[in-house]
Amino acid sequence: MPPLVGPDTPCQEWVPTALGAGWPADRDIIETLVSIMWRESRCDPTVHNADDPNSGSYGLVQINTFWCEPNQWTTNGWLQDNGILDDCLELADPATNLRAAWAIYTYSMDKNHGNGWHPWRQ
User: Fold this and answer.
1) Inter-residue contact 79 to 85 (CB < 8 Å)
2) pTM of the entire structure?
3) Are the C-beta atoms of residues 89 and 100 closer than 8 Å to each other?
4) Measuring CA to CA, how many Å separate 110 from each of 18, 53, 77, 78, 115?
């Protein structure tokens, strides 16, 4: 099988982590994912953008805390309800961030007519 991304692709170092977090070995999906990682965090899993709404966004793909805080739809947070994490700060862990992103992507596929990238405005 040919590599999913080229050796000079930004964020390519996170592809094995993404695959381990549940992302499929699909070239189109992985190329979009690494593009989003580059755009959102420049491949730095520790990035926290406090200027985003709802206390900010975290990690490689900049997951907004909307997904992990109590709101009108969930008592604990959507990511907690789905067993992804216990606290928003865990989104700084690359594996947790990419596992959460996969869960959000698959949720969005269902809710946004097949557009799993909708939360990242793709």
Assistant:
1) yes
2) 0.93
3) no
4) 21, 24, 19, 15, 8
